[in-house]
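quick one
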Amino acid sequence: MSKRKVRLAVIGTGGMANVHASKFAEISACQVVAAVDIDATRVGEFCRKHTILSAFASVDGLLAGADFDAVTIVTPDASHAPLAIRCLKAGKHVLCEKPLAANYPDARRMVAAARKAGVINMVNFSYRDWPCIQAVATLIRRGGLGEIRHVEASYLQAWLASKIWGDWRTTPAWLWRLSSRHGSLGVLGDVGVHIVDFATYPAGPISSVHCRLKTFPKAPDDRVGEYILDANDSAVLDVEFRNGAIGTIQTTRWAGGHANRLFLKIYGTKGSVEIDSDRTTTGYRLCAGKDLDLGKWKEVEARAVPNNYQRFVKSILTGVQDQPDFARGAEVQKILDVCFKSDAAHKPLAV
Ligand SMILES: NC(=O)c1ccc[n+]([C@@H]2O[C@H](COP(=O)([O-])OP(=O)(O)OC[C@H]3O[C@@H](n4cnc5c(N)ncnc54)[C@H](O)[C@@H]3O)[C@@H](O)[C@H]2O)c1
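structure w/ nicotinamide-adenine-dinucleotide:
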């Protein structure tokens, strides 16, 4: 592997960008050299906090004024596709936040642009960083659960029912997530995208989905200032997998008591697994082999795995594309598009 450092620019310097800057700073083969935000005050403060030398007000400014290899895109969802395609056309490697795009056609355009540029591309399905999900995916791939029959998956958040992460009514980072005009696909696009990846990565691809989306009244006239609160708050997906299994995937922002819980149970002909992030993310529970007839569960510790930031930098240095890539992001985006159509049509639809 080359000894040179990957020079990286952070695009968007809000809440999640702090995680990106800190994680990339831990990687000795990477240096964050620039940051961009349309909010000049925010980008200035961000650069001071993370000791980043150059601040820019636009991606065009960044491309014209900085010497760098790669970008990480941490802006609101609707801007991912145009910003990523702009950077790909300039030959930059791109890590992009989830959801990859606002819809499947845009996601496919991103995949095509990345292929044409021949650069490393990844989508930040951040729960791939958990040892438990990688271990469960490997176990299933090796046949440890037999044939998959049933899947139960949920991603629960509490910030609409509580002030566990502050008051959403006065926080722009929560308000844009409630407004389709601000590019949000609701809870389905925000964290449903994670649980769809989390369930289908080990259990396999989905062949059809019957989705129900719901937006609850939560402010006078369903608006707060410029934000029209029309994006979905709760989603229930009744799914069939290509391997014949069936299951449910659900997500909501109304789950008081669960700040950020991912839960996954997969049942096969030879055993069952459970991941519950409220308990642990470094291991999982298994009921298989002799324990199956006794209905006994045991705790299994999983091996540590590299995070997406490390995978991205390593991919750039080695030239070997790792997962999850844009094509995977687009696959998940396709499921989200079908969910919206299924909800509108009140019937199951093929993916
Ligand atoms: N992977 C995860 O677990 C995870 C967690 C949180 C957020 N996210 C994702 O990260 C992204 C950002 O979320 P956030 O919570 O940090 O939002 P945020 O609102 O806190 O920050 C977004 C920032 O982007 C800036 N911005 C907007 N348009 C821009 C543009 N065209 N060019 C440059 N800057 C621009 C805004 O001014 C703001 O500072 C979203 O896509 C979200 O889904 C992912």
